[in-house]
């Protein structure tokens, strides 16, 4: 069975500082990997996704993530955080050939200090 | 429509009541999903439709939960005899073809509180 671990429940960074959110997955083959962001009272917005090819994936709002098969990781990064990035971030894994059933991590709550 | 639309946005139900949650997917999207998100948790898969066919219902927590999509467009998630543990946000999502890499779009959710 596939699973996702987001080890950091809360992270606080200063505006303008760099950010890295950790995600580790468990899946028997090459997975589909996703990062979603959720603001309070809102649905999930896709930041980026990895299906195949280049392991460094660029997303919206200046985010990027790198797929590292050897570490079973898909960490999300941003070089300079803006106050509007404060939200909850979810990593998810989907099955290739299926892609229809996403397994989410428990999320990382990001707080940005001005 | 422009996005996935869910109604009602907020629902308070007395324990034992039946509730129905509606999802209008993005026009033309073949795939439709329901997820349950408890407070402080990530979304958990409930069920999946491709057109009107329910291909996977492995995540439905009990036989009190029932989902349908009779015409391959609008979907309804029904919860019978609601219990307090059913309190959660119910997220609907749709996609053109997720297996081909198409993005899965989520609605804003229906917040259910069972009192």
Structure description:
The complex is a heterodimer of chains A (114) and B (115). Chain A has 114 residues and is mainly beta. Helices cover 0% and strands 51% of the residues of chain A. Chain A has strands at 3-5, 10-14, 19-21, 24-26, 32-38, 44-50, 56-58, 64-68, 73-78, 87-94, 103-104, 108-113. In chain A, strands 2, 5, 6, 10, 11 and 12 form a six-stranded mixed beta sheet that branches. A four-stranded antiparallel beta sheet of chain A has the order 3-9-8-7, with no helix packed on it. In chain A, strand 10 and strand 11 (103-104) form a beta hairpin. Chain A starts with a strand and ends with a strand. The mean pLDDT of chain A is 92. Chain B is mostly beta strands. In chain B, strand 5 (44-50) and strand 6 (53-56) form a beta hairpin. The radius of gyration of chain B is 13 Å and the shape is globular. The termini of chain B are far apart. The A-B interface holds A 4, 32, 36, 41-46, 49, 51, 90, 92, 94, 97-107 and B 4, 31, 33, 35, 40-45, 48, 50, 55-56, 91, 93, 95, 98-101, 103-109.
